[in-house]
Amino acid sequence: MKKIVTFILFSVINFSIFSQNSESKILQFKYHQNDNYQFNSVVEEEVKMNGRLLNHATIVNRSTISVSKVDENGRGYEKANFMTSEIFNGYPTWSENFESEYWRSRDGKFEIADSYIMPVVRDVPIFSEKPVKIGDTWTADGYEAEDMRKLFGIPNPVKVPFTATYTYLRDEERISSDSKHEKRNLQVIQVNYSINYENPQAANSYTETLDSIMGFSNKTIWWDNEKGQIDHFDENFRIIITSLRGNVLMFTGTSKSEVTEFKRTASEAVVQQVQSKVDQLGIKDVSVKKSENGLTLSLEKIQFEPNSSNLLESEQAKLDKIAEILSGFPNDLLIEGHTARSGSEESCQILSEERANSVADYLVGKGTRKKNQIFTTGKGSRIPIMSNDTPEGMARNRRVEITILDK
After folding, report:
1. Best CA proximity match to 236, nearest among 214, 213, 220, 258
2. Does 192 score more than 60 pLDDT?
3. Which domains can be identified in the chain, with CATH numbers?
4. For the purposes of burial, counting CB atoms within 10 Å of the CB of 304, is it exposed (0-12), middle (13-18) or buried (19 or more)?
């Protein structure tokens, strides 16, 4: 009798799993006007030239995307800003931004002008128009848009086509990567593709230029079909670029990416809201303004130990209150260090970078942000707000600016 009951229970469990695995669903992107979201990728990359190691770098790729409109076919028109930055002294440094805009369909296809360098990988993922279930496999064409301006002076991105293979592996209950950290039912999709591209213009060139690109990418995507958006993904990749003269560059690495949301902050209403909070908390020598990159809190007369990046206790108490304000925004932060002019500009530059990192360390220690959500830069003494001829002017020039990034 016990064996019969066990057999029945085993059969019921198996039937339940089989039924769950057999449930078909349509996977597709969903766009909503005025939605804002952000991709952050941390890449560990090794670069070799002609077999010799050139560099091992930790890179942060940051993409902020806004959906400006949605058409009758469910396509979203997205305006995006992309930045690639290496991590130095524990934080990614602020660097050049690239803007882009494009239509993207519900199945994931891009419609984008040839002039845009970013994003690099396009038409991934692409979903089948038919319902799929766990275990299903499909293929779809995509391409990489390789930026060859610095290497070979090619003005527009080189389009490298591939055919990707997709497999719907399983469903998983996971905590979402956004600031809500909710338990979500995610679909796990494996994506693999190889590239093998030869430059058709190379044979007619008399100067050094791109000859070929080879490589592969293996991605695992955790897809949130209820939201119609990627939650996060992992990747390992290798790209080999060969020049006409036989030089070989090889890029090998891994990437971990997650999607989070962000708020638009650069408005007069938000500036007034944050300034009121600063006044309410009694934070002295702090002003709030709109800036090129978002909403900036300028901490003037910030006190460090003499010729040092060590914060005084009084400034730590000030940063505790600043952290309370920053907790109301999920956005990444840019921290800029500024010094008064004392000594050489080179020494001012180094000190400004160290002080920006010191403030970043304190905010990370408070749990205000993770390290890959803070970008730092030093401006030395090059951007004074007052003359350095008076003690008051020098005190005000010695400042740290924290920007809640709006793009």
Report:
1. 220
2. yes
3. 25-261 (2.40.360), 268-405 (3.30.1330.60)
4. buried
